[in-house]
Amino acid sequence: MGKVTGFKEYKRMAPGKRPVEERVKDYKEITISLPGDMLKEQGARCMDCGTPFCNWGCPLGNLIPDFNHMVYKDQWERAYKRLSLTNPFPEFTGRICPAPCEGSCTLGVNRDPVTIEQMEYSIIERAYKEGWVKPEPPKVRTGKKVAVIGSGPSGLGVAVRLNSYGHIVTVFEKDDEVGGLMRYGIPDFKLEKRVVERRVAVMKEEGINFITGCEIGRDKAASELLKEFDAVVLAGGCALPRDLKVEGRELKGFHFAMEYLTQQNRRNASKPVTVDEIDAKDKVVIVIGGGDTGSDCIGTARRQGAKEVIQYEIMPKPPVERNDTMPWPEYPMTLKTSTSHEEGCVREWLVNTKKVEGYKGVVKALHGVRVYWEKDDSGRMVMKEVEGSEFVQKADLILLAMGFLGPKKEGMLEELKVNFDGRGNVVTDENYMTNVKGLFATGDMKTGQSLVVRALSEGLKTAEAVDKYLMSR
Ligand SMILES: Cc1cc2nc3c(=O)[nH]c(=O)nc-3n(C[C@H](O)[C@H](O)[C@H](O)COP(=O)(O)OP(=O)(O)OC[C@H]3O[C@@H](n4cnc5c(N)ncnc54)[C@H](O)[C@@H]3O)c2cc1C
Ligand code: SF4
Fold it and tell me: Which residues in the chain land under pLDDT 70?
């Protein structure tokens, strides 16, 4: 364990953040990890409590008390090796995971939890710096060929694990770069793209083939892949955005969040934006939707020089502290204030959009109404409008961040004739295989919109299932 009395002696120290006034001038990462000696103290806070609930809280099952102890003992290379046993990409999760592990940390019962995510970040960054992260190609190749469609965290997870078992893996990606939402969705200020490129370079040296700019179902038939490869894995994400069918939806300046975020990620990478440019400079921006995607729009609009940013959420404001509906060690669904929120925005809950007003075809104002939720006779929560609470808010740009409705069906999925569940996601059996033999599905394409850590965990489990199938185990 860390230090027997560590949790009493040392307070939790979260990673530092660049000052708001400095960071909104660029798109570089915001967080600054603590120096090594302070991290040792943070490792010392781990009680090695016997039943590590943190390990249960982490979808990857990371061996958290082990690496906390090793950091406390200054055994960084050992800590890196222990972390790598369960997590092939700690540089992603160490930056953007909402850290459900910390919500389950036993210290969290009556103190602040161990700063596990920061520990992960620091271990992997130290490992890169010291040259411990080396390509590890398999010693023997099985001769079995696997195609992975999609290069987000789930596809990369499948690829890295199957390659390590000696299978020949080719990843097909429709975008011009590898990384999925980590590349063109999540902004650089949360995850700089050099971090993704650094890992992909290692994976290439390990022998994984990447083919970008190739949309399966359009540029290449999915049925061809089924003939050419011994197994095919669908890891195409969940890209259909939930729309808001209100009057004024056709107006200029009313966009899906992903249209907006992708453009800025392309600009940051000095890549051309070939569609109509969306820019928040000097504009009143309204973000509809209170999740991660909405928050990323706020941070991006701030950096573009928006005059004002307002976020509307239809659900009630979450509680600040845990309550009886979310007891420890469950993940606390409490109010989250992201770094983007800190950069300045008005947040309002229990607001519904009635219509959007335009002037000469361009967004001019949002017409909203306050709402509340109550149970109907069947016990279902239903939304009701607060009488007389209608309001009009001036707007120049409105961004829709209301979640996603499963994967796109036209093209690849229609061609493959896979089955879908009631939410529009691809159905598999318990071995991740779809209704088509040798065709597997994983990540958000199977579960619906999720988290990087969950998509990665799914990808690793799918790789195990594919390996069993290929090797008739
Ligand atoms: C704006 C935004 C911010 C987010 N922020 C966070 C966060 O901070 N922390 C967190 O944990 N999670 C976050 N998430 C969620 C997280 O990014 C996803 O859950 C995760 O990326 C899903 O991984 P995936 O591999 O299943 O799919 P994706 O990352 O969506 O990758 C799928 C890939 O498949 C490709 N593809 C699709 N169809 C085809 C085809 N026919 N041929 C070839 N390629 C194809 C796509 O181009 C894409 O690159 C965020 C999501 C969004 C939208
Ligand atoms: S991957 Fe996420 S949940 Fe798992 S240990 Fe890291 S921060 Fe915690």
Answer: 1
Confidence (pTM): 0.97
- Nearest ligand to the CA of 331 is 2
* 26: CATH: 1.10.1060.10
Ligand 2 shell residues, CB under 6 Å: 58, 60, 62, 64, 93, 97, 99-101, 116-117, 120, 453
Whether 210 is covered by a domain: the verdict is yes
Q: Are residues 12 and 126 in the same domain?
A: yes
Q: CATH number of the domain that 448 lies in?
A: 3.50.50.60
42 C-alpha to ligand 2 centroid (Å): 16
CB neighbourhood size of 158 (10 A): 34
Give the strand order in the sheet containing 439-441. Answer: 209-211, 168-172, 145-149, 231-234, 439-441
CA of 373 to the centre of ligand 1 (A): 31
Return the ligand 2 atom nearest residue 120 CA: 6
Tell me: do 277 and 304 sit in the same domain: yes
In a domain, 137, yes or no: no
**Domain ranges, residue 151:** 145-239+405-470
Per-residue confidence (pLDDT) for residue 3, from 0 to 100: 82
CA 173 – CA 210 distance, rounded (Å) = 8
Examine residue 15 and say whether the peptide bond preceding it is cis (omega within 30 degrees of 0): no
Distance 207 CA to ligand 1 centre (A): 23
343 and 368 together in one domain: yes
DSSP code per residue over 121-139: HHHHHHHHHHT-------S
* Residue with CA closest to ligand 2 atom 4: 58
CA 3 to centroid of ligand 2, rounded, Å: 22
Task: Encode pLDDT of 430-469 as tens digits.
Answer: 999 999 999 999 999 999 999 999 999 999 999 999 999 9
pLDDT tens string 191-200? 999 999 999 9
Determine how β-strand 346-349 pairs with β-strand 231-234: unpaired
